[in-house]
Each structure stands twice: as structure tokens, then as C-alpha cells.
Amino acid sequence: MKATCWVAPQKMEVREVPDPTILNKRDAIVKITSTAICGSDLHLYNGFLPMMEPGDIMGHEFMGEVVEVGSGVDNLKVGDRVVVPFPIACGNCGACKAEAYSLCENSNPNAYIAEKLLGHSPSGIFGYSHLTGGFAGGQAEYARVPFADIGHIKVPEGMTDEQVLFLSDILPTGYMGAEMCGIKRGDTIAVWGCGPVGQFAIASAYMLGAERVIAIDRFKYRLDLAREKAGAITINYEEVDSVPDVLMDLTAGRGPDHCIDAVGVEGHSHGLLYAHDRMKQVLRMQTDRPIALREAILSCRNGGTVSVIGVYTGLIDKFPMNAVMNRSLTIKTGQCHVHRYMKPLLERIQRGDIDPTFIITHTMPLSQAPEGYRMFNNKEDHCEKVVLKA
Amino acid sequence: MGVSTETGMQTTNADTAVIGTALGEQARPRISTTSRYQRIANADRGTGGESLANFLGAFSLGLGLAQVLAPEGMSKICGIKDAEGNRSLMRALGAREISNGLAILSRQQPEKAMWSRVAGDAMDLAMLGKVMANPENDRSRALFATANVLAVTALDVMCAKQLSMQPRTVANEGADKGVIRTKRSITVGKSPEECYAFWHNFENLPQFMRHLESVSVTGERRSHWKAKAPAGKSVEWDAETIEDRPNELISWRSTEDADVYNAGTVSFQKAPGDRGTEVRVELEYKPPLGKLGSKVAMLWREEPGQQVMDDLRHFKQVMETGEILFSDATKQRGMHPAQPDNEPVQL
């Protein structure tokens, strides 16, 4: 089969590789129809996540048709059309029973490595480095899905791939970012980052009852999308002196009730602090640039929530813990527990609460995946979301 | 060698001590609960000497390498006249430093290795005294070297004293006899009864201990174990069950005539709330010298605790999900990209 392989930082290749086979009883093999490039794939593309090996198959947002089922899967049959959640979860352990699927205790075969770096191990993830298990990803013609009996949602008749594909990751991720804020009537939410996850966080905040949502980015086309499609009030941080000052103005000195960081490790900013962060990153004195996170913490109103859904891969500097502690802020975060949200969000799509297709700017064949990565990474041609057709 | 002195089972005066006296009767923790965990915490404590020992071990290694690789330079620093005899002495001293450094870093009886460093310091100081007495050498350099050795000696003595105070714990007990001990634990979401029943049938062990080929029960308390060894070979031994408390604890040990000494205890304790079972394994083994040595060393990889932890993680997977999960990258040993291949799964 054809598969998108990581070769070296900023170098992807579509290669011919062997087809996947059933390895465990609860596996299924899915013939992929649509898959997407995620913002977090760019962290791998740019070499920010450790433990990649040349030849690793990328991709954790995918859907398709079941072509083979293991002996331990009793709720799927050949021909079923499914969307697959990006975290691999067993459904049996303490974390899964508590619906914290991205913390599954049994799905990361390399848990011992993750423990050394993170203290404890999160779940396995498709196509997302050997730190999360070394599972082949879904930017390919076929994928093996472990624990397929709980790791899927069947697509109802009449729905297109594009309508449901983002249930695999970014729609639930954006939604969980808004849900973690505990939004009440009248709340103002600020969202850093207008990539696909940021867009869905904005839309979800409105779905959960926010009065207004303020979106921060530097790309005009992304801000336009956030304003026109998701309904945000937008700030281009390159055009203002200080984002926290503008947020103070907009909220008459209170600050946003809750803040969402949908940026993560590769944040940008202008000015000296950015140069300092970038330099330390290059010198390996810190691995991540927590620019959005710092602003979110400093902007958030007293007693508010900072919800972190942007991906962090290592250590950060100058973390304003004094603000967090003295102003009673709550930090909530996590890789999305996708399984928990797939069904309710599918229902919202069916009801017309949200049309997730609004973020798609590029559709291309799988063979052009390297081109897709380049465009998405460099924000060429107003690229917001690339869908690959296998 | 007391395998059955399983940490949580020993009776100490902690059982009778009352804690939480500032609390009312209602809020006070149960002594039977806290004392058990206090014993585990006590067994894990060190002396604080470990980080200094690591530094001094690395220092020994570095100094030894310099002495072996650049004896002329090291002689010059100490003010010793360059001569063939001096160079080979310097190399010999370097070899001593390297073996000391390795002994300290190996963590097997580090206190003995530290006292050996102190003895080495005394030897160095005596030799430096002779160096200063000989007019052919550079006195001021030798004096400077002596001052440095004295400073390190002070650190060595301090560290050796700290390490010597180390209590006898599961981790270091038996070190005198060349026995390696290790312990690990995991929480499994099943009842102690279920965990015990599965483990108690030793023929199940190869399902989650990847280095075992087979275990067959040969008698009421006896079993025959077969483990994988390098080059397609295998190692075999007989073991006997030495303690068996239903739903609580199993201890086993290789029999007297076995080539490979090893012994283990597994205990099953109900975890708080409905969190399942706390499974704790203590394992000890004696890597024999000679031909078998390398085979057995392979069984537990470099770090004995890592193998036990892998086994326990797999035990949890088998109990909770029915089997061990593989990824494309981990279905075989060694590095492999996250990509399907046509090779079979390698247990």
C-alpha cells in the first residue's frame, strides 16, 4: 500500500509499504477513504517531538471502510464505515472506565519510555512517534486499528466523509477545550490560535453558551475565517502593541472569563521575548515556546480557567506561576478523550448545530501528502486544513 | 536468604504506634492501613549519600581514563619527573581508579567501593609524600596535587560514612553474597482473588513474562521453568513454591540443584476504593559466572527492575484486556519504524 512516511525533519515521502495485518484479537483493518493533516503533525514534521524513526507512517485523523475484523471484535463487520479516534484506548482499565481515554493504561507498548520523560505514560496514539507506542498512522491506504471494538463510531447513511472526518480529533479537541472552561451565561472566552482546533474551540464555546468569543492570530485569512464562519471578535497580534491590553479594553478591565491556548509548542510573537524564547529553543535550553500560554495566564480574569489544548512536547521557561496562584486561576488540559465526545458531537452535526466542513481549504490525493505538509506548515495559499483522499 | 520477608508483611513496632492523634476518632486513619505503607516507604529510603557517590564514581572514571590515556600529562600536573617507570605506575593507578569508579556506579555495595576509594586516597597521599621528598620532582606542583587529593579524600570519607549507614533494604540486602534484588509494583483492575488465581497457575506465566518459554507444573509444590537465551538456546531449572497464602501471596525459589539461582515473591493486596489490586513483585537472582553467566544476564536485560516492570505491565494487560498489545514498532525486539512488515510477532 501507499503510506505517508516521516523521513527526516521537514521531509515526508509517500512510499510503498506492506499492508497492515491483524496483530491482536481486538484489531480491525480499515481501508482509508479520507484522512487529514493535523496541526500536531506539524510538530513532528518540524522535529519538535522526540523519538521519530525514518519510515514511521504519519497520521492520526482518518476514516474508512472496515475490510478485516479480529476474532475479539463483535460490534464491527466488513463493510462498516467508521471514523477512528486518535487515542488508542482499551476500554477496560481504570482511566478508560473514567472516560479519560487518552490516559489509557494498556495501549502504549512503549510506556516505559514515556514514564521516564513524563513521569507516567499517556495512551498510545496513531502515527505520533515511538513515545506514544510506535503505531503506524492513517495517512495511508490502510490502517490497523487496535481495540477497534471501542475505538470507532459508525457513520450514519447519507453523511459525507468531510462532515464526520474531524470527529477523529480536532472537533472533539476544540470542544473539550471549551468544555473545560465551564462556560456560564455572559462569559467572554479568548482563544489563542485560529488553526483548525482554534476554530472549533471558538464554535464550541458558542455552542456551550458563551456570550462572545475573542480570537487571536496573526494570519488575516485565519482571522477572517474565525470571524465570518465561527463568529469570533478577532485580534491580529502583529497589529497591536499588547494582546492583554486589548483584552482588558474589550472586557472593561475584567479580563476574559476563560482563556484557551490552541497554539502550543511553536508559538510566535513579536518583540524581544520571542527572540529570547526562540534562541533558547535553538540552543536546547528549553524545548517549547509557551508564548500563547503566558499571555493567556496574564490576561485571564481572577478566578478564571486557562484551558490548554495546544500541544506541548517538553519544558518551558518563565511560567507565571505567581499569577496562577495569587489570582486563583485553574489550569485544565489534556490530549482529548475523543471517545467521550464522538457520539454527542455527531448528533450536533446531524442537528445542524455545527458544520465542521467550514475549515477545509485543500483536498488532494494521498500521493500529494508531502506537498500538503509543506503548504500547511508554511501557511501557503491560505491553507487552513488539508484533507487527503486515499 | 529471606525471600519471604516480603516488605509489607514484616511485623515492626509501627504496628502498635498510634498516628493521627490530633484527629478525632472518626477521621483518624486505620493503623493497619498506614503501617503497611509506612513499612514500604521505610524500605525504600536511602541515606542521601547516593548523589555524592554518583559524582565521585564519575570523577573516578574520568581521572582513571586520564591517567591511563595520558600518563605523561598527569605526571606533569603532579610534578613527577617523566620516566618510563613512572608512566606505567601512573597507568596502574588509573586502572585502579576506573575499577573503583565502575564499582561505585554499579550500585552493588557502593559503600565498599567508597571505602576502597578512601584507601586509594591514602596510597596516593603516601606516594605524593615520596614525590615531594625527591629533589628531581617539582615540589610546588606536588604540593598543589596533595592539596587536591586531601580535599577529595574528605569528600570520599564523608560519602563512605553516609553510605555505610544505609539501612538493610530489599534493594541492597543480599548484595554481600552477590545476589541482585529488585522490586516493582502495579495496580491491576481486577480482584485479588482473580489476580492470585491467574498467577497461581504457573503455566500462565509465559503469557506475560516474555523471556519465559514455558513453565510446567511437575508436582504439588514443584515446577519446571524454561527461559529463552541468546542464539536460540534456552536455560532450564526447577523451582519450588515455598509459601502460598491464597489470594494474598506466592513465593517460589529455584531448587538446590538448579544452575540458575532465582527466587521471587508476588503479593496481592486490595487497592483503596475500587481500584482493584496492588500487585507487588520482589525478585532476587544470582548471576552465575562462567558460560551460563551471559545467558542469564540476558534474561533480565541490563536493569533487572525494567524486566520485572515489563512483566507486570503485561500481566495487567492480560488481566484487563486478555492479551498483550503490540504496535508495528514493538512487535519485534530492537528498533523498527512504525510501519507494517511481514514478520511474525516476536514474544
How would you describe this protein?
Chain A is an alpha/beta fold and 390 residues long. Chain A folds into 2 domains: 2-169 and 336-389, Medium-chain alcohol dehydrogenases, catalytic domain (Quinone Oxidoreductase, Chain A, domain 1), CATH 3.90.180; 171-333, Rossmann fold (3-Layer(aba) Sandwich), CATH 3.40.50.720. Helix content of chain A is 29%, strand content 21%. Chain A contains 13 helices and 18 strands. Chain A has helices at 39-45, 94-97, 111-118, 161-164, 170-179, 196-207, 220-228, 243-250, 272-282, 291-299, 321-326, 338-351, 369-378, and strands spanning 2-8, 11-16, 28-36, 56-57, 61-69, 81-84, 87-88, 124-125, 142-145, 153-154, 188-192, 212-217, 233-236, 258-261, 305-308, 330-333, 362-365, 386-389. In chain A, strands 3, 5, 6, 9, 10, 17 and 18 form a 7-stranded mixed sheet that branches. In chain A, strands 13-12-11-14-15-16 form a 6-stranded parallel sheet, with helices on both faces. A 3-stranded antiparallel sheet of chain A has the order 2-1-4, with helices on one face. In chain A, β12 (212-217), α7 (220-228) and β13 form a beta-alpha-beta unit. The mean pLDDT of chain A is 95. By secondary structure, chain B is of the alpha+beta class. Chain B folds into 2 domains: 7-21 and 170-321, Alpha-D-Glucose-1,6-Bisphosphate, Chain A, domain 4 (2-Layer Sandwich); 50-164. In chain B, 43% of the residues lie in helices and 17% in strands. Chain B is built from 9 helices and 7 strands; from the N terminus they run ααααααβαββββββαα. Chain B has helices at residues 31-44, 50-69, 71-77, 84-105, 110-133, 139-164, 192-200, 291-299, 304-321, and strands spanning 180-188, 212-217, 222-228, 234-245, 249-254, 261-270, 277-286. The longest helix of chain B has 26 residues, at 139-164. The relative contact order of chain B is 0.10. Mean pLDDT of chain B is 83; it is low at 1-12, 290-295 and 298-302. Chain A binds chain B through residues 3, 5, 17-21, 23-26, 53-57, 72, 90, 92-94, 97, 105-107, 109-112, 124, 127, 130, 133-137, 144, 146-147, and chain B through 187, 189, 275-276, 306, 309-310, 313, 316-317, 320-323, 325-331, 335-342, 345.
